[in-house]
Design a protein that fits this description.
The complex is a heterodimer of chains A (755) and B (291).
Chain A (H helix, E strand, L loop, with lengths): L1 H59 L7 E9 L6 E6 L5 E6 L2 E6 L19 E4 L6 E6 L3 E13 L5 E14 L10 E5 L3 E9 L2 E11 L5 E11 L6 E6 L5 E6 L3 E6 L8 E7 L7 E6 L5 E6 L4 E8 L5 E9 L6 E6 L5 E6 L3 E6 L4 E7 L6 E6 L5 E6 L3 E8 L7 H5 L14 E2 L10 E2 L2 H31 L3 H14 L4 H42 L3 H7 L3 H28 L4 H9 L8 H25 L3 H8 L5 H30 L2 H6 L17 H8 L8 H34 L4
Chain B lengths: L42 E12 L2 E12 L3 E5 L6 H7 L10 E9 L2 E2 L7 H7 E4 L10 H11 L5 H14 L3 H4 L12 H13 L5 E5 L7 H14 L4 E5 L3 H7 L2 E6 L2 E7 H6 L4 H7 L5
Parallel strand pairs in B: 3-8, 3-9, 6-7, 7-8
Antiparallel strand pairs in B: 1-2, 1-4, 4-5, 9-10
The chains are: A alpha+beta (755), B alpha/beta (291).
Amino acid sequence: MSEGVTDSGSIPEKVATMATEKGLRGRLAKDRMATRVVSASGFMVIFFILAIFFVIAAEVFPLFQSPEVSLNKVIDIKAKGTVLAFATEEYKTIAYTVTSQGIFFQSLKGGNTWPPVALPDLDGARITSASTPQNHMVVLGLSDGRSLGVQIKFDISFNEKNERSVHPGADILDFVQLSESGRPIELIHHHVGDAGYMVTAVTGPNEVAVVQVKRKKNMMGVVRTKTQSHQFTLPNKGAITALAMDHELSAVYAGTESGQVIRLALPTDEIDSSAEIIGATPGKAVKITVLKFLKGGMTLILGDAEGRVISSQIMKGDDQRYHLSLVHGFESHAGAVRAIGPSHRDKGFVTTGDDGMVRYHFGTSGQTEYELDTGWKENIADLVMAPKGDGILALDGKGRLGHWTVSNPHPGITLRSLFGKVRYEGYENSEYSWQSTGGTDEFEPKFSLTPLIFGTLKGTLYAMLFAAPLALFAAFYSSQFMHDSLVHLVKPTVEFMAALPSVVLGFFAALWLAPRVEELLPSLLMMPLVIGLLVVVVQYIAEHTDLRFYFKEKPATEFYFLLILVLIGTGLALGLGIWFESVLLQGDFRVWLLDAAGLGYDQRNSLVVGMAMGFAVIPIIFTIAEDSLSSVPKLLSAGSLALGATRWQTAVRVVLPTASPGIFSALMIGFGRAVGETMIVLMATGNTPIMDLSAFSGFRALSANIAVELPEAPEGGTLFRILFLAALLLFLFTFVVNSIAEWVRLKLREKYRVL
Amino acid sequence: MEPAKPMKGEIRSFLSQKEGNEGKLSDTDHTGNSSEQGTSNRVMVNIDHVNFYYGEKQVLIDVCMEIPEGMITAYIGPSGCGKSTLLRCLNRMNDLVDGARLEGKVEIAGEDIYDTRLEVSDLRKRVGLVFQKSNPFPKSIYENIAYGPRIHGVNRKDELDAIVEKSLKSAALWDEVKDRLPESALGMSGGQQQRLCIARAIAVEPEVLLMDEPCSALDPVATAKIEDLMVGLKEHYTIVLVTHNMQQAARVSDHTGFLLLGKLVEFEPTKALFTNPRQQETEDYITGRFG
């Protein structure tokens, strides 16, 4: 019996324990599960942010990679005679060499051989010189004072297996009489323009002949040639040693043994032909060995007998005279400069000298990016850059052709060119400039991020100038002074503003706000002043009459009263502004602004952006600031009030310092929002990348720049990577700002910790 | 049941004769028991038929009471009886509550404190309040004390230094904190913080000091210190104390009022109330039969 009782007593107990254990186990399992899910999610967030950061950084990284150069092969070319010039076809499969014996083709891949160009009967003359091939056109200088133009052609065909094969050929163009006296042509240069080409050659100790050849194809396909010849007598000291031609075919530049650069202007309808010295090698008189224009014909590179390589620009002074303005000095060669090979794609060029070194320089940045040693010393004869910039071909006097492969996808990009001042072509001074693409192939891209960073900061500054006081005062007022019944109405309304898409704000700012602001700017600027003054005056009157008891008894009425005051103030400011403009500002403030302050007025300017972006930022700052102000413990403000402090004293001296970490956060988050804001700055500014603090001019922000330029940036290109760099900068910028903000916030919170 | 008005009509109002009438106050003791306190007995606070509402809810029902100067008056009663509300009516802290409404009249030193022409901040300077939970500002110890004088226009460093020292000495805190005045007040112990709040309240030299359960969050040692402090302070200030702790009321106060459901049931010299309560409710409460 006793056993039975024990059993019956113990069994339910056991069951109960087991049930509890089971339930407990379940709860613990859920707990573990939840912990894991939460940790994993948190980890994923951090992981993805880091991943985004690294992906962006990885896209930027190649910009700063150093170029790779490797010797592909050295070929013995089967050309007879002295090498005069050479060039290669686009795909680096065929090179052609111009020698005193003719024009010879050479396969760079090996295998194929082609017959040399069949030149016409030269009437017994020899080839004495050749110009650097341009667009595969070569001009041969002959021993009887004539020249012969030859157009090299590459016919591309595909066989049934779709394999590409190239067949070189040539068209013989015209004979041109350069030297009337039949003097052999030793130095010749040409340039191909739109309507024909121009040849120039030295025809005497101080004589240069220039012949314009215009070729017109009529409807029947018959080519008619018209030549026009100009003879120049030069004021040179020493022999003429180098010739170059600008790309508009309006002037020829000659370099001399004494280091002078002489400009020969061709006559036009307005001006006569002239020959004047426009500059010289820096320091002392050193023989100019090579003159070459970079792509675009704006920058002239001088190579001299001491191995110096100098870039220069031909500037027209205020006196309408041309002068040579030296820009960069590049890394020198140990011997005289032998040849300069401009890139066909950008402002880069290769040089070689008697030291057998080949160096690649970049005209815009003034940097020497890489070099290689041919080992050929003074035997080196000529060099060219492959048309796609991915190779260098050098030729020595013994008929050896060296082919180097180069990988330098982003030439000319350095930290200095991205952030520093750079002297661009056609500029008198170094400047910060962003202009990524231009209308022509010759355009020099300007990739300075500084104006964009400036634009971002400027937009943010104006947005914060507009938004921060409004949002903070509003938060302060609604948390400390406004009647509760109104707070419940005002707070959700302001928060609703945050839901406005920024594209709507931008659209509104650009199309509605900007013209109104332009119309009513003086009134607008007066508004805060007039309203502020009005409120102070009315407050003073109220303080000294029985009106104050009225507000004391009906706490919410002051708000409506203020609202009416603000409306009256707005109307007053409008009228006053219009009057002010017509009486004191010559009827149009824009004219006055330009006259008095020298400031231009753009319709879409920083002020408009500040307002529009302010509307985007106000709700964020207001909400966070209001929350932190109203979450200051009531006990603290009560403590202050109980000491006889007024509401204002309590708000300023107790509530404000205690809420300062939250207010600081609010400002910083607003700041971060303004920095990253894209649509408003894109639509409401002119997107001009200028650096100018004026409120009445536009700007271009980093974020808007990414949006604007994205369609123009082919994947993997320099612009593409620079846009990623802009993105990385934005990322880092917000990261740094947020980190500093968080640090300061924690410090403040430590200080104003409330028990 | 009739609202208790034990003192109404039995004490003459001397409010219009603020100066030089102290001697006459000795006969305010209507119970006939000789006053143990014996010092100045001028009426400081006159609560006259006060009804108080939070919105529709009435929390004080026809309260009448005269609080003598220079003494400690305690309010006791169960939770929700309205004793804190009554206390806060005296410096209009109830104004901060939305929908709070007072009927009747409260006079301090003869002035109607609910007159609309009166500046509330001025009233609160004269009637200090120490809260149930210590609430030092997140500032230094020095700045906590100097805050009150500063907002009332004292800005000279030497004056402030003197006030801080005097107030801290009055609150028996000087010796403990004189070497760490620039440190944050939040680093002090709970008892020290509460004494700091008392020092802060007396730094603006109020006439009346209201204390709303000042010891409820403190341990017995800290409580004893504050009680000693109160007894010391009554020499200069009229103190009104709300307490849950009947022993405390018995220990420190001169007069005690018992409130129940918004009514002042009994208001007597402390000894009389605890030894010989007139009302049945009072007796039930103090003997622990409810509350």
